[in-house]
Structures are given as C-alpha cells and as structure tokens.
Design brief:
By secondary structure, the chain is an alpha/beta fold. The chain contains 8 helices and 7 strands, in the order βαβαβαβαβααβααβ. The chain has one domain: Rossmann fold (3-Layer(aba) Sandwich). It is globular. The termini are far apart.
C-alpha cells in the first residue's frame, strides 16, 4: 500500500503539482486547503482513494482535527508537505498590522502547527519526512516583501532546528525555496521585467519545484537542508 502524504495548500500551485507527482507514485493523499470545494476538485482529479479536507493552518484545533481525520481515513502519515502560504506585498510603512499578523500566522505559525501534529504521528511509526516550502526571498530579502520574507526566513530557521530535534527518531525535515514560479501568488508581477534578473531567463513551473520536493521526501540521508529552486536568482548579489 502506498505511503500517506498530507499536503497543506495542496489544491493549487506548487502544492497541487506535488500532489500530482505523488499520486503518480502511488501515494494516498490528503489535499488540504481553506476552500474545501477547490480541494475536492483537486483530489478527484488525482483519481480514487484520495481525501480532501478544509483547514485554517493558523488554528491549532483545526490542525489537530485535520490530522485525526486523516489518520482515521488514510492511516498514519508518512509525508508532510507545507505549501500553504499567503502574501500581502507592500512597503513596510504601508503595511497594516493585521496583514503582518495574517502572513506570520499562516506562513510560519501554520507550518509549526502542522509539523507539531505530524511529528507526533511520525514518532509513533518511527520515521517520516517533512518538506516545508520556503522562498528565496526568505534567504535574500526583497523590497516590498519584508513581512513575507521574514515569515519565510522563519520557516528555514524553524525547519533546521526541528531537523535536529527529530533526526534520532528517523524523521527528516527539509525546505524547498522557490524563486519566481508561475502561480496565483505571482500572477500580479511584471514577469517580462523580472525575467531579466533571472539567470535562466524565465519563471519556473510548479512541477519543476515539485520534483525538488519529491527528491527531498524520498532521500533517506538528507535532512536540515534548504534546496533552492530559482533559476539561479540566488547567485546574484
């Protein structure tokens, strides 16, 4: 029987691309998003045997309830992918406090809460793998994205520390840090102008990032690492 994978933010973008690859591998998937209807559409498109759930990752009780339902219907969780994120781009002086809080709660606190629930399950089965989706701006920073950058930098620091905590339990924790990728989150950007700053000269595709996620899920001797998938953007100062 295939491995069980929970994908938060799995209904669209990078999360959906990861789901499609894992489904091809024979995994049984829980597609989790705030919008249940969209999650159900994605789950159905992957074939039979997959689960769709609604969850606000910033709320601990919802996260706990989601994991309990996943375990009842699919069994113990082998893989966790955290792709749920929001951004509220803008200069810091123009950013509302509530927009700061919402980004930190979804992008960072949400990752912590889902990892906490997953680790509890993975310890019981003596192993598992977690991949958290960060961002190259969490490593380099970006004007107009100070809060988003901070939340994604927090994901990297959190993941490295957690990897140390759970390695003896045979649980691996890694990060994939994408650059500019074609998703709803980047649809508003001036692509033609930004492509000039990317050494490979183009935006990435979600499936290109998904292959990096799959590599880290399946690599038994890699933990505490951040894999950058950005077309060479990190090479620039």
């Amino acid at each position: 029987m295939g491995k069980v994978c929970a994908i938060f933010g799995g209904s669209r973008g990078i999360g959906k691309a990861v789901a499609e690859l894992l489904a091809q591998k024979g995994c049984r998937l829980a597609i989790i998003a705030r919008n249940l209807e969209v999650a159900q559409t994605t789950a159905r498109s992957l074939g039979a045997g997959h689960l769709a759930l609604s969850c606000d990752v910033s709320k601990e009780q919802e996260v706990q309830n989601t994991f309990e339902e996943m375990q009842r219907k699919l069994g113990p969780i082998n893989y966790l992918v955290n792709a749920a994120a929001i951004n509220r781009d803008g200069l810091l002086l123009r950013t509302k406090t509530e927009d700061m809080v919402s980004q930190i709660h979804t992008n960072l606190l949400g990752t912590m809460l889902t990892c906490k629930a997953a680790v509890k399950s993975m310890i019981q089965q003596q192993g598992g793998a977690i991949v958290n989706i960060g961002s190259v701006v969490g490593l380099k920073g970006n004007s107009g994205q100070s809060v988003y950058s901070a939340s994604k930098a927090g994901v990297v620091g959190f993941s490295r520390a957690l990897a140390k905590e759970v390695a003896r339990k045979q649980i691996r924790v890694n990060v994939v840090a994408p650059g500019f990728v074609h998703t709803e989150m980047t649809a508003h950007l001036a692509e033609e102008e930004l492509k000039k700053a990317i050494p490979l000269g183009r935006f990435g595709d979600p499936h290109e990032v998904a292959h990096a996620v799959l590599f880290l899920l399946e690599s038994p001797y890699v933990t505490g690492s951040t894999l950058i998938v950005d077309g060479g953007l990190q090479l620039l100062t």
